[in-house]
Amino acid sequence: MVHAIITGDIIDSTQFNEAERKKVLSILKKVFVEVQDKAKKIDFKIYRGDSFQGNCPKPGQALLISLKIKTALLKSNVSGTGKMPDARLAIGIGKAGKVGKNIGTSDGEAFRNSGQLLNPKTKEEYKKLKDYKLLFKSPWKEVNEEMEVLLSALDGLISKWTIEQAEVVYELLNNKTQTQIATALHKSQSSISERVQNANWLAISNILQRYETVIQHTIKQA
């Protein structure tokens, strides 16, 4: 069975003080619970303090879940100074192999594809790790090439977000309407609409849809 494994680590975690790190970990734990509530088979664990890994039995949903994690972090103001915590995420797809109750002891193609992206061995792998915050690896060469283009474009869009834009995108990823978001955030409909447009939500949703379509089609054909 083909799975997606999402491996991540907090970027520049050493720059946060103890109180800020606790807030960041609290955010991660909360978003993991929200994801797990919607799909019980999805399992995330935090390890080494600033790293985490999750098993996603539906690979077509892995990018959506990854974006929920990133936006949950980016929309938070952990220091009160506008500093946006972020995570580098690696999606690995392949045969899951051994998936134990403790994901840290699991192994298989998907685990190796994901983990190796954050532990580069070649100059090319180091460059990708430095340049990109969203990484992808699967058994399929053509899919890898397309995803590198899509995710590098997505990286560029995300890098321009403000906290307020990330906050709105997070709600959109959770299927909230602009009217619901405006009510929840006590903002006008026009201000929410402006944030949606400035965050390039149309392009982001198109990338999400393309990712899901390509992955599901490829798995069926494999």
General description of the model:
With 222 residues, this protein is α+β, with helices and mostly antiparallel strands. The chain has a single domain, classed as Reverse transcriptase/Diguanylate cyclase domain (Alpha-Beta Plaits). Helix content is 54%, strand content 15%. It has 9 helices and 5 strands. It has helices spanning 18-38, 62-74, 109-117, 123-131, 141-158, 163-173, 178-185, 189-198, 201-221; strands at residues 2-10, 43-47, 51-56, 87-95, 134-137. The chain has a 5-stranded mixed β-sheet with strand order 2-3-1-4-5. Strand 2 and strand 3 form a beta hairpin. Helix 7 packs across helix 8 (189-198). The radius of gyration is 17 Å and the shape is globular. The termini are close together. The mean pLDDT is 89.
Comma- or semicolon-separated keywords:
222 residues, 9 helices, alpha+beta, Alpha-Beta Plaits, 5-stranded mixed β-sheet
Estimate percent helicity. Answer: 40-55%
Quote the beta fraction: 5-15%
Strand order of the largest sheet: 2-3-1-4-5
* Total number of strands: 5
Q: Tell me, what's the shape?
A: globular
So how many helices? Answer: 9
Major beta sheet, specifics?
5 strands, mixed
Order of helices and strands: EHEEHEHHEHHHHH
Radius of gyration equals 17 Å
CATH architectural group: 2-Layer Sandwich
Low-confidence runs of at least 5 consecutive residues: none
Q: Gap between N and C termini, in Å? A: 11 Å
The overall pLDDT average reads 89
Number of domains: 1
Give me the CATH fold name. Alpha-Beta Plaits
Going by helix content, strand content and strand pairing, the class is alpha+beta
CATH H-level homologous superfamily name: Reverse transcriptase/Diguanylate cyclase domain
> What is the CATH class?
Alpha Beta
